[in-house]
Design goal:
Elements (H helix, E strand, L loop, with lengths): L1 H20 L4 H16 L4 E13 L9 E12 L13 H8 L6 E2 L11 E13 L2 E7 L19 H14 L6 H27 L1 E6 L4 H13 L6 E5 L3 H9 L5 E5 H9 L13 E17 L14 E3 L6 H11 L10 E3 L3 H9 L5 E6 L4 H7 L4 E3 L4 H10 L4 E5 L11 E13 L4 H14 L29 H13 L16 E2 L5 E2 L5
Parallel strand pairs: 6-7, 6-8, 10-11, 10-12
Antiparallel strand pairs: 1-2, 2-4, 3-4, 4-5, 8-15, 9-12, 9-13, 9-15, 14-15, 16-17
Helix pairs in contact: 2-3, 4-5, 13-14
């Protein structure tokens, strides 16, 4: 009898332990997700068609004094109304991936031109739960790690010197020259131009377009790889390159070692005018844009236990504004100046990359970290999951001042729920990430490139880029601070006539005045 009782107790304990392992159950997961969806997108914006709990694991990143678990589940959502998840000015795909706790590749069904009522979105999701007084409470959605980018050495365009000399030699020896030295010089100059152009186009056709992106695991490199994966199906071969960021990207365009590049509109404007970090190079008047991609917003991060509530509280503090020579650093000095803080006088600038700065912030080595980046910023998203950091807003009066004085800046906000531990909307400024090239790109090449980019907008989220959900023809001319390539302008005009996007331009960044590009075609600039 004793043996039977012991056996029953063991079975009972196993059943109880198994039940504990299944906590929180599917119903708790559903209720928590429904509450957060309603808070961010509005009550009843989504119906949870199904939610299936898949299992759980110990959260290896949890504090030593807490018991946490990561719970995995599959979910199907149905939109109950038309919703713009690719919009620039209200909760979209960025907030959705955070609320669900998924990587961009784990979500299917988000449309860049807008989802209709009845559309379904499926996701492999996750959430972190903490045990408190015997029950499990939701702490945050689980984060995801950005993929490593591969550095492709053959992305640097090979010099055409040898081919040029060989071809010129063949042509010049076969052409009977007149005795006129002037005529010989004219022929030589025209041959050089023609051979250079032909060789350049052939090299790009065969080897691909060197694509200056950004640092490893950065948002730019993730976007570039996602775009390249989709563009190759349109027979456009892009070769993403790891770089230090937008300043180097533009330098690579200038010296011909990249054909296309990513950079924020404010940095592009500095390069075009030869200002800021480009002052020593002079104006880059050959710089052209192929279109606007997605918004990049100013993030200013402090510790959660800090007494800092706004930017004016940063007086006398240590702030990371990025490495020396970075364009974003110049913009942040303008942002702080609009709040009455003078560079090198009212605060101390720390020269570190954003990911390093977040670690320094957690270690109380600095007081704030700043970065202009697409949302959700992967490194910040991971840090915010632990609820140790928070964002601070810009003053609305300063925002108005900034957007009136700087044509590259827009009045935008970070929607509530975009990051864990950030339920309220954060007022800030932003700019547009631009796809850049030079006037050397031919009309046909620009046309093919633009078609590939804005076709890809439908699939970039699933290809790995959260920001890709915001790429749309509708927003392709927002904040163009440098002239648009004529071939790109023509391509966008054709696409706009054939496509029927439902999305509309955000009200707060409707065009106020045009900027005429080199083709005489008006492109959109932000409201002043």
């Amino acid at each position: 009898m004793t043996h039977i009782i012991k056996k029953m107790l063991v079975i009972f304990m196993c059943v109880m332990l198994s039940a504990c392992e299944r906590q929180p159950d599917s119903e708790k997961l559903r209720l928590a997700l429904e509450k957060r969806l309603n808070n961010t997108f509005g009550s009843g914006s989504f119906n949870i068609i199904s939610l299936k709990r898949l299992g759980s694991a110990i959260d290896s990143t949890s504090p030593s004094n807490e018991e946490r678990r990561v719970v995995y589940y599959d979910v199907i959502l149905e939109a109950t109304k038309n919703i713009e998840l690719g919009s620039w000015d209200h909760p979209g795909a960025a907030a959705l991936v955070t609320l669900i706790g998924a990587g961009p590749r784990s979500i299917v069904g988000v449309k860049s031109h807008g989802n209709d009522a009845g559309d379904r979105i499926t996701a492999h999701a996750s959430a972190i739960y903490r045990k408190n007084n015997g029950s499990w409470e939701r702490v945050a959605p689980a984060g995801y790690t950005a993929e490593d980018g591969l550095f492709l050495e053959n992305g640097i365009q090979k010099p055409a010197t040898e081919r040029l000399l060989s071809t010129l030699n063949t042509i010049t020896t076969s052409i009977p020259y007149t005795s006129s030295k002037t005529a010989q010089k004219v022929v030589q100059q025209e041959l050089e131009r023609s051979v250079t152009r032909i060789n350049g186009r052939l090299a790009r056709l065969q080897d691909g377009y060197p694509f200056a992106a950004g640092p490893g695991k950065g948002e730019y490199l993730v976007f570039a790889h996602s775009l390249a994966d989709i563009a190759k199906k349109q027979h456009v071969k892009m070769i993403p390159l790891i770089t230090s960021g937008s300043t180097e990207n533009i330098d690579l365009l200038r010296n011909g070692n990249a054909t296309i590049a990513l950079a924020p509109a404010d940095i592009a404007l500095m390069a075009y005018n030869g200002k800021g970090p480009f002052e020593g190079h002079g104006p880059f008047t050959e710089l052209r844009t192929l279109g606007s991609l997605y918004p990049e917003l100013a993030h200013i991060v402090v510790r959660n236990d800090s007494l800092i509530k706004n930017l004016k509280d940063l007086k006398g503090k240590k702030i990371s504004l990025g490495p020396i020579g970075s364009g974003g650093r110049t913009t942040f000095e303008q942002i702080l100046a609009a709040h009455g803080l003078r560079a090198h006088k009212d605060y101390k600038i720390i020269d570190t990359q954003f990911t390093t700065a977040l670690q320094q912030l957690n270690n109380s080595e600095i007081d704030a970290a700043a970065q202009i980046i697409g949302i959700p910023a992967s490194p910040l998203r991971a840090e915010m999951t632990q609820s140790k950091l928070r964002l601070i807003p810009l003053d609305p009066v300063a925002v108005k001042k900034l957007t009136e004085s700087n044509p590259a800046l827009l009045s935008l906000s970070i929607a509530g729920g975009t990051y864990s531990n950030q339920q309220k909307r954060i007022t800030t400024v932003g700019t547009a990430a631009l796809m850049l090239a030079t006037s050397e790109l031919t009309m046909d090449e620009a046309d093919n490139m633009v078609k590939a980019i804005y076709h890809a907008g439908q699939y970039l989220l699933a290809a790995g880029s959260t920001q890709g959900a915001q790429v749309s023809v509708t927003t392709s001319k927002i904040c163009l601070t440098v002239p648009m390539h004529q071939g790109a302008a023509e391509a966008l005009r054709k696409i706009a006539h054939t496509a029927l996007p439902r999305a509309v331009l955000p009200k707060n960044i409707l065009p106020k005045k045009p900027m005429v590009d080199d083709a005489g075609i008006e492109s959109v600039t932000p409201t002043m």
